[in-house]
Amino acid sequence: MNQKARKLKRGSIRGNAFLSLTFRMTLYFMAAICILIVQIQTNAMMKKSNEENLRLTSQNLLMLAQELTKLTNIEQLKKFQTEADTETPAYKTLKEALVDFAEDNGLKYAYFAKGVGDGEHFYYIIDNDTNPQTQDTPSKLYLIDNISRQALSGNFYVTPLGSYYTSPEGMHNPLWDGMIYAFAPIFDADGSVYAAAGVDADDSFFLTQKKDLKMLMFVQIFALVVGVGTGILNMLLYRKQALQNANANKAKSQFLASMSHEIRTPMNAIVGMSELVLREPLGQDAKEYALGIKQAGGNLLSIINDVLDFSKIEAGKLELVEGPYVLASFLNDIVNIIRVKLTEKPVRFYTNIDANLPNSLLGDEARLRQILLNLLGNAVKYTNRGFVSLTITTVSKEPEAPGIAAGERIWLKIDVSDSGIGIKQEDLSKLFGEFIQFDLRRNRNIEGTGLGLAICSRLCAAMGGELSAASVYGEGSVFTVTLPQFVVSKAPFAQVREPENKKVLIYERRKVYSRSISWSLSNLNVPHDEVTGEAEFAEALRREPWFYVFSGYGMYKTIQPLMDKLNPRPGLALMTDERMDVNIPGVRFISIPAQALSISNVLNDEPDVRNYYEAGNLDFIKFTAPQARVLIVDDMYTNLKVAEGLMAPYGMTVDFCLSGTEAVELVKRRRYDIVFMDHMMPEMDGIESTEIIRNWEKEQSLSPGWNGAVPIIALTANAIAGMKEVFLSHGFDDYLAKPIEMSKLDAILTKWLNAEKREKPLFKPVQNVEITPLIIQGVDTGHGLLMCGGKMEGFRQVLKSFCDDTRTRLALLRQGLDTPGLSITQFTLLTHSIKSAAATIGARNEAESAARLEEAGTAADRGFIQDELPGFCERLSELEERIRNALNSAPPNTGLEAAADTDAGAAGDTGLAAPLLRELCEALEKQDIDAIDRAFDKLTEKALSPDLKKNLDGISAQILTGDYSQAAAAAKTVLERL
Predict the structure, then answer these.
(1) Rounded mean pLDDT of the chain?
(2) Choice among 172-176, 783-787, 862-866 with the minimum mean pLDDT
(3) Of residues 581 and 879, which shows the higher confidence score?
(4) What is the DSSP code string of 572-606?
(5) What is the 3-state secondary structure (H, E, C) of 383-407?
(6) CB neighbour burial string for 687-724, b if at least 16 within 10 angstroms, e if fewer
(7) What is the pLDDT of residues 715-774, one digit of tens each?
(8) What is the distance between the alpha carbons of residues 687 and 691, in angstroms, rounded to a whole number?
(9) Cβ–Cβ contacts within 10 Å for residue 315, how many?
(10) Mind listing the pLDDT tens digit for each residue in 902-918?
(11) What are the DSSP calls for 158-219, one per residue?
């Protein structure tokens, strides 16, 4: 290359770099200006709130001053002219009334004042001060200043904030500072002002708030300056790097990542400040303003995450993490999220899922969820009436093969349709570009970066698939994803036994739902017919026998009398909104949108428990590890029982403990292959425990024979964005969200358990196991069964543990805040534990209520807690009673435990004896009879070894004789042997 060509190339690179830098600086400063505007609005709204509070306070003081005039009359005031009058009973009675009035209304002073004849002086007739040294009497004269002149001139008057007494000579009296004064005139019979009634209130709160506003503005400006300065510095550094790097796309991606990170600095300050503002006593309007600022900040952070995702794709750093997942569970999550987004819109949402799809697949579930939520979220945003639908089928792209076998690759075809505003034909070709938004005038109120579809398109390409779109402007759009996934198990998503004998009559006036059910029934090979009117429905019932009737919940009263006349009477399934809690004997309920799995469960006379365990869970378990030993730490016994059920198929030795302190001691005594550590625990939480373990490991690493650090996995119910980084920075190796999903647990064990200890499993999944689950109002027992490893007996034990734990925690919660047994910190931990346990057993409503109370505890929102806590306790108590009644009335041996290995269950219960024995030891040392009984009850329910039972019998005998010290020593000996 000649010298001229080299110069031209260098000039081109520099020119491109300069243009690129200019574009990014423009974008960055636009974001900075937006942040500045948000800051200004924040302070303006807070200032407005302070002024509004001051205005309301002033109005209240004026009313109190006016109310004070009713406390006496002019004839009585005229009696108090001299110092001698202050000793009269009438004067003392009025003074006592003033004292009570000030105390009842939170005032500093309440008084009556009168001007003196020369017009230059006034005196206090009487006030509420009871101190002889400082109280005012008619003998003390004061010069009239502007405040007293207003009071005695017949005006209703309130002093401005910070306006204090100054004499006409300009002398300032600091003794009268720090108050707001309000006056009301007292007129005599001819309408002249005889005196004034005055009230004084402390103004320090408003002055402090005004000062804090100034400080907040300073902090926000400082954060903005730091963020902008850091950003400019990074941009200059990037420019230097860009000049040295010929790959413009790579440099652009690095810049986007850096810029997005720097914008987070001031944004996090704004969001954090908003959170602090929300903890202060605010009026309703001000609170809504602050919440709006916090939400807007969160939206902007979400946009930044889109930018980061895009930059990762551009830089070629996008990582796909493939793993097994259950299609039914995946779709349930998607449907629940989209259903919530549509609650405020008159839009129908329905799904058409091919029943022949394999239920257990292998792929990147997180990225697939991101794609679907983005497409469905767009459909929701741009659809104001009509429908949004999700259809999943398969498309053939490979040679035909007889049936679907494990390990085979299939192609999913996913259609997201809507009846929204649509896209112009000339815009379709640019749809998947970067930062593209169309029809901005029409869509100016809809938020977004224009990156979502670009990210989805590139994710599909990275996963070996493609994304396309079709649209009619003004009528709606269809986005189609075609994606390869691998089959883990050939068990279908849904299947009806003997479908030809189960004819269904559909009576549903909402056409989109009627057509969706018809589509699913056709897909399941079930004969059916549709009717839309009452007369047509009655005629169809008389015409021929039906196996089942599917109808909307709102038509139940109409169809019930017609169906009761039939013999035999067909089954009835009503479609309801997910939020409805209904129970009609002999009637099945299906949540809208109705999926093939729910429909097949109804027709097969199986509970709609979303039983994903048989189809996929056991297939996930690719190994056992009888030589491995793990420790599970959680302060709630219910969660330990769940962990026991989930760990059982792996055959590992599992230890349990209920506190971080105990976990530290166990790690020091035994070598564990993995430790699962609960994040939030009383006394010592998971982060503190992990830091202590890591420091101890550093000391031990200098010793010969050191085997290395133990992998510690955080267990958390707060699996929000950014938590993983927090855990990793505090010594954790990974984290697992609660409630624990079997597939994610398997992935964690596969990743962190030593490969030398993994063996091929000896069991095989059992097919066609009959399931007779518990029916408990308010509990998704299918979800709970799944969370407990698919064993009904294990689920029953978890439910009993939940009841026991709940009863203990309810006793503390009902004491109320700030009692000796319950501080705000302890309250937050209690509600956190209840939230986790309720979510695990499938009590969704109680889990959500506990989550709101936990958030209130974190924010120290005592008002919310006091309002919500009694109702929450009542609902939780009712739930506990319903669970106990169900456990007592249902047969114990039902469910998948028929196929389980009973030895594994017994071993698990023996493992759980350790924390219970520690609980028993503590109760014996304290001689707490109730705690001793609870611990013994829990222990006697376990499938324990004969030796352990014999030892417990001996301890029981010592307790019965009152020898608690000997019983405690014996329990400690047994504990040490475990």
Answers:
(1) 75
(2) 172-176
(3) 879
(4) EEEEE-TT-----TT-EEEESSP-HHHHHHHHTT-
(5) CCCEEEEEEEEECCCCCCCCCCCCC
(6) bebbebbeeebeeeeeeeeeeeebbbbbbbbbeeeeee
(7) 876 544 456 777 888 889 988 876 576 667 888 888 898 888 887 664 444 333 334 456
(8) 6
(9) 17
(10) 333 333 444 556 777 77
(11) EPPTT---B-TTS-B-GGG-SEEEEEEEEE-TTS-EEEEEEEEEE-HHHHHHHHHHHHHHHH
Task: Please report which confidence band the pLDDT of residue 163 belongs to, taking 50, 70 and 90 as the band edges.
Answer: low
Q: Is the pTM above the cut of 0.85? A: no
Cβ proximity of 792 and 899 under 8 Å:
no
Q: How far apart are CA 253 and CA 248, in angstroms?
A: 9
The pLDDT of residue 769: 33
DSSP 765: P
Conformation bin of residue 648: beta by default, left when phi > 0, alpha when psi is -120 to 50: alpha
Counts of helices then strands in the chain (DSSP H, E): 30, 23
Cβ distance 186 to 74 under 8 Å?
yes
Residue 409 CA to residue 397 CA, distance in Å, equals: 10
C-beta contacts of 172-181 below 8 A and 24+ residues apart: 178/202, 178/203, 178/204, 179/108, 179/109, 179/203, 180/57, 180/58, 180/61, 181/61, 181/147, 181/151, 181/157
pLDDT tens-digit map of 552-606: 888 888 888 888 888 888 989 888 875 455 567 778 888 888 888 889 888 988 7
What pLDDT, on a 0 to 100 scale, did the predictor assign at position 527?
Answer: 94
Backbone angles phi, psi at 657, to 5 degrees: -150, 160
Q: Comparing C-alpha atoms, which of 796, 779, 787 is closest to residue 889?
A: 796
CA–CA dist 296, 287 (Å, integer): 14
Whole-number Cα distances in Å, 531 to 301, 542, 603: 49, 13, 19
- Write a three-state SS string for 313-342: HHCCCCCCCCEEEEHHHHHHHHHHHHHHHC
Q: Which helix (H) or strand (E) holds 416?
A: strand 409-418
Residue type, 751: K
Closest CA to 329 of 765, 740, 891, 766: 740
Q: What does the CA dihedral 376, 377, 381, 385 come to, rounded to 10 degrees?
A: 40
Instruction: Write out the H or E segment, with its range, that includes residue 111.
Output: strand 109-115
Burial of 403 (0-12, 13-18, 19+ CB in 10 A): exposed
As beta bridge partners, residue 714 has 677, 735
Q: Which two tokens stand for residue 586?
A: 């002999």
Pairing of strands 476-492, 409-418: antiparallel
Query: Tokens 């950014």 identify what position?
Result: 722
Phi, psi (5° rounding) for residue 736? -135, 125
Q: CB of 289 within 8 A of CB of 45?
A: yes
Q: Which residues contact 502 (CB under 8 A, 6 or more apart)?
A: 496, 526, 527, 547, 548, 603
pLDDT at residue 682 in the model = 74
Task: Name which of 364, 367, 361 is nearest 322 in CA terms.
Answer: 364
